[in-house]
Amino acid sequence: MSTLGQKVIYQLYPKSFYDSNHDGIGDLRGIIDKIDYLKKLHVDLIWFNPFYKSPLNDNGYDISNYKEIDPRFGTMADFEELVDKLGEAGIGVMLDMVLNHCSTEHEWFQKALAGDPYYQKFFYLRDPKPDGSLPTNWQSKFGGPAWAKFGDTGKYYLHLYDPTQADLDWHNPDVRHHLQDVVRFWEKKGVKGLRFDVLNVIGKDEHFVDSTNIEEEKALYTDTPIVHQFIKELNQATFGRDPEIVTVAEMSSTSIENSIEYTRPNDHEVDMVFSFHHLKVDYDHGEKWSQVPFDFMKLKRLFFDWQNKMDQGGGWQALFWNNHDQPWALTRFGDPVNYRVESGTMLATAIHLMRGTPYIYMGEEIGMIDPAYHSMADYVDVEAHNAYERLIQEGHSEQEAFAIVHSKARDNSRTPMHWDDSEYAGFSTVNPWLIPTDQRQINVENELAHGSIFNYYQRLIELRRTEQLISEGHFSPLLEDDDQVLAYERYLADQAERLLVLNNFYGTTTTVTLPDHWQGRAVHKLIANYEEEVTLFGDQVTLRPYESLVVKG
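Above: the chain's sequence. Below: its structure in C-alpha cell form.
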C-alpha cells in the first residue's frame, strides 16, 4: 500500500488545457507543449478526461469509438508521443474508461438499430408496459425518463445519463469481452493508469421494476452484488496482470462497505474509489440544484466516517475536492474574495494529509475559482441548461434559477486553464469553447512569478513522498464537536510519532483546546499556510482565518 500512499495524481481536462492549433479547443499537442509546467508539480500520473471519438454531447463521455482519438484533439501519433514524453518526465498516463455506456453513434448501437440481433443484445432493450407507458419509471441522472425509443421497433433502450448515451448490458459476456479488449488496447499503448467512469452502476438487475422513491431507484442499479463479480473478471482479464497499473473507479452514491470491498487488495478489484458524499454538503435536502451554505459539521462527519472505516477495513480512497463535474471547491468551501490564498492552501492541506491518494484538478494548484458568468448563454453543458429550464418550470425567477445554476454547474471547472492575463487567458488565440474569467488576477505566469499556492502544492506532494506518517499512517479524528476546525491525527502502528493536522474552515480566528497528549508537547512544524514557527505546544492553539497547521511530535 505504501506506493499507492506516496502517489499524487493530476487530473487534466484536455478540451480546456491548451489549444495548440488555434481552433478554440484544447488538444493533445497542447498538452505536449506544456509538459515542462506539468513536470514542476512532480506528480506521478495524469488522469486525462476522454479524448476518444465522440459527438461530445456529454463532453466526451459519449464515446462513438473506443480505439480512436477524436480528430478535434489530434491523432494517435500525437497520443503516442504524449505517452513517451510524459514517460521521459517520469509521469504516467491514466485514461478514462467509460464502460457503462456508449454513444448512440457507436457502431454497436447503430448495428443494433439496423436490426442485428447480436448487437441488440449489447443494450437494455425492453418493451413498454401493457398500457403503453415506459418500461419503468426510472429517471435519468440528467433529468427526464431513463428510457428512449429504440428506432421504430416499438422497444425502448435504457440510458441512465443522456439519451445519446445508451447503457451497455454487462450481463452479456460478449459485451464484457469487447470492453476488456478496449482496456488491453490502451494498455499496449503504454498507459499506466485507468479511471473507470460510474463503474458501480454496471450491474443493473435484469428484471426491471418501478421504484417508489429515488433512493430505492438507485439501489436497483447501484452497488449490486454482481458488480463485484464483473470488476474481478475485468481485473483478471486486463490490468490485474500488470502490477504497475494504478486503477481508480468513480462510484456513484456508493457505500463505505462496498468501497472497502472494491479496494481491499486481496479482493482484486480496483486500487481506490472516488466517492462524492462530501461534495453534497451544500445540497438542500439532497437537491443539487439549490443554493445553501455548506454544512461544515456534516462535512466533518463524512470525512471522519470514511477515513476511519476505510482504514479499519483495509480499503483505499481517492482524495479530492475538485474535478470536471464539480464547481470549484475554493468558491464552495473557501473565500475567493478575501482569503483566496489562505483558503485555497487550507483546503489542500485538509485533503492531502488524509489517508488515501490525492488528486489535483488542473488549475487548483493556482487557486482558480468559479467563472464570473452573467447569463445561461455563457454555459455549454447540457446538464446546466436542463437544470435551468426545470428551475424555471418549478417557479423560480430567471435570476434565481441562474444563481443556482451558477453555483453548481459543471462548466465552472471546465473553463480554460489560465496561462496568462490575456483576453483568452493564454489558452488560445481565438474565442475558446468556454470563456475564461478572472485571468487578470489568477494565471500560471503570475502564480509562478509571485504566488504561493503552486509552491504550497509542491511541498504537499514532496511531504507525501518523504513522510511515512502521511503515506502509510492510520487516521484518527480529533475535535469532533468543534464547529469551525477540522482536525485529525496520522500515526503508524508503533505510535512512536504522530502527525497533527489543524484546519480552520472559516474567515474568523478561533482557539482550540488540544487533546491531553498534545499539551506541552515538543513539536516540529511540517507545513503551514501562515509563517510563524511552532516548537512547543501549550494547552491551546489559536488559528487565524483559514489557517492550516501541521506538526509532527
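The longest strand covers residues 485-491.
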